[in-house]
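Let's do one together. I've listed all components of the complex below, 1015 residues spread over three lines.
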Amino acid sequence: MNNPTPIIGLEVHVELTTKSKMFCGCPADHFGKDPNTQTCPVCLGLPGALPVPNQQAIEDTIKIGLALNCEINEVSHFDRKNYFYPDLAKGYQISQYDQPFCHDGFVTLDSGKKIRIERVHLEEDTGKLQHTVLGGEKVSLIDFNRSGVPLVEIVSHPDISSSAEAKEYLKKIHQIVKEIKVTTADLEKGQMRLEPTVNVKITDEKGGHFTPLVELKNINSFNFATLAIDYEISRLTTEFEKTGLEKEGGNKTTRGYDSVKKLTFPQRQKEEANDYRYFPEPDIPPLRISKSVVEKIRADLPQLPDVIIADLISAGVKPADAKILSKDAAALTILKANPDLDTGKLASFIVNKKVDISSNINEQYSKLTQVGETDTAKLSNFVDEVLTANPKVVEEYKKGKVGVLGFLIGQVMKLSQGKADPKTVSSLLLEKLSGSQ
Amino acid sequence: MAKTTITTSDVAKVGVLANLPITDEEKKLFADQFSATIDVVDQLNEIDTTGVIPTSQVNHLENVTRPDVVDKDRILTQQQALSGSKNVHKGFFVVKQILEKDSE
Amino acid sequence: MNKQIHELSVVELLHGLEDKLFSVTDIVHHYLDRIARYNPELNIYLHVNEKAIDQAKAIDAEIKKDGLTKPLQGIPFAVKDNFLTVGLPTTASSKVLEDYYPQYESTVTKRLLAAGAIILGKTNMDAWAHGSSTETSQFGPTLNPWDLGRLPGGSSGGSAAAVAAQLAPVAIGSETAGSIRQPAAWCGVTGFKGSYGRVSRYGVIAMASSTDSPGPIAQNITDAALVTSVIAGQDQYDGTSSPKEVEQYHKLLNRKDLKGMKIGLVKGYLLPTMRTEVKTLIQNAAKKLESLGATVEEISLMDPKYAIGVYTVIQRSEVSSNLARFDGIRYGHGRENFGEEAKRRIMLGTYTLSAGYYDAYYKKAMAVRTKIVEEFENAFKTYDAIIGAVSPGPALKLGATKNEPMFGEMEDILVEPSSIAGLTSAGVPCGFVDDLPIGLQITGNQFEETKIMNIAKVYQDATDFVKFPEKYQK
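Okay, and this is what the predicted structure of the assembly comes out as:
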């Protein structure tokens, strides 16, 4: 088989850091709280309870969409995703199906490659299950504190071609959502969840073949994501070589990642047929988001890393420096505060720690960029004097020991009391050294 | 108009989706009854709905949202939350484990 | 006082309390005695409020101190058992919720209690509101006080029977498609369904989320208007509740006649299968309204048979989803406890939403719904109200629902169109066939409650159909 080409799509769930839950006024901050102490009729799924959407969560979703270059739907609505599971209090999850808030965006990787984003939508989280044994029986303990917390789902197109690209994409998403302050995105707390979907294209003499899709779940770190994806690419390729089984409707499987054994394993489907029977949520009237509302949200967005980097580069900062400084708020402030100085140079000084940004920048900058005397007429005398005073060194230079040039430059600098421009001195010396017999 | 035939295996599949235990008798009964019901529903095809936008909201409301504030009035105590169930343990609801993770 | 307490309307009871003719405790004692006497054979109340006397005493103390300061102070209510009430079980007449004590109060009962009312007890209904007979209750049917061999209608059968048998001066029910108006018709009392969104659904066990409308079942339209003014209004906990202002409806029933009003008698609601006697009563009602000054014309609307298809699909689909939360984990018992009707509806609804069928059924039904809505909107440009029978005939016998897998939806053919469109409608008694009551629907455009109540008031004042079965008058 030639060149198995990985095809990777990423689904990222982001827990919004709102004060209250998505459809009720329970506190959204659930980490570490005693079980079932932050529930109400709505998020506990009691009979007769009704959902009312959180305005801030909707705005946050639009912020994420804008930060990811998405189109914002003017009319949007929620849908019910129906399935049974103990952690799903109502027996359906309120999510979005055919009219999500945002669609058709992209993220640009450093290589310039664009990863397209299919949609960004808003939904509610489920409760938490814990498996244990009680009285000799295998049971699950359910805590509904997390039920109803707002969750934004970001779905990419399968444009990613390697685990490295996947990691970069994930890191960029992570940075962006934190940057626009909609979430603290702490992976260990489950505030950002990663779900790669992987398959492989294998080309042989008959043409291109696509292996079945695999969805990888329960991955809570970028490194595990990379490892799981690589493992899966290899496993899918080997599987295909054995079975020749190709992708077709209904043969997508779900696998978990075991970080200890460093492998993926099959997970039983939650239900035989994943027929979610989506229909528009009758308890929640549709949302109409006007263009002016979108523009206001856009205007309130903080500048995003990629945009900051682009701006720095166009101001003369080296790309490598720009990338580093984009994350340094203090440095960015200094650069903004000193528009008269050469931004590129100042940026470089900061990156190379040649300036202490807590003290007077102007002074430090002047010292570092001080251009000495460049007038060759004036410097000629110093140069001649040094050459005359050091005949042995000149001899050595002519014999090929070019390193001594530094010494000669130093001597001229001494004579000029440091006021000469080293570059000019250097070129004068070279001229005279090559010119003399 | 052709009569719709819903089979007992259709009914069985729906029973799984609906998380309802269905006996064999019920499967037969429902298969007949559903077929009859769908015949009634199929009458809707006599109405031309080309270009008609489906209605899911009859009272023309839009943008009904709530501000992002904590509502203390509705929060249930742990005891209240658990009060409807007989299967609780240390603050949790308890249910028989239904999903097991297999390892290769 | 010539009348006994149970012969008094809500308005009369309030006057009586004001005039100190009796106390709230007197009223509640009186009703509790009657319930003890008559409920066993009628099976109207599933649970009686043991705290009712204590609550009555507390309200008497309030009245003694400050006089009557609340709109329903001291008035006892029968409440359908799909309204969540703290301190009283809420079962939806199903074994699944047999011993469920809710952790929160429905908005409707909260507002009633804040208005000074007392809950006498929770009334029987079709389990999960699935039906038009109360025969699907898993705790036995309620019997029609007019004829114990007959059904009271449903799904608010218990509430309607409570008012008819005078075991409560007024009751609360809910209508998804006919469930207030139809039992009111079969029991000869007045039911009022406000527009969809007029009254909050928060705390009402959901049946079809897009049509469920809580409302009163009363002795007459004035009482119904008063109760509606108390329970209606926007609720922050129900996103579909209307922000439209609520009027003091009972104070606006000032019309002396119907001059200037145009009323449409729906031709298609005079079903070919309808008994002549019933048609005659409806035509009499039309003539009556004419004699009161209205212009009454025959109007043709879409054949109501299509509303059955629309309603069946939308309702059963929403039901299948709304009943998914009943898994026995957080409350109630397991799903194996659902009765046959509930299972049937959940299954059919699951089927019509499932992959491959959604477009053919659910989406199609929603599109026909649009046409029904538009047709009504158009009709109401010309007409102030439309009228017709509530039900194809009088109360049916016990057992009528057996082996009828679409009993409810078929029975409610005449009221499904207005429910699907979220309209407002009054169901008032308009005569008797075979000594059984027949109900007339007076239906209006969304949020035209005042207008419809006025027409009903003028009609009721000019007729003498507000009657109660003799057996329970003692």
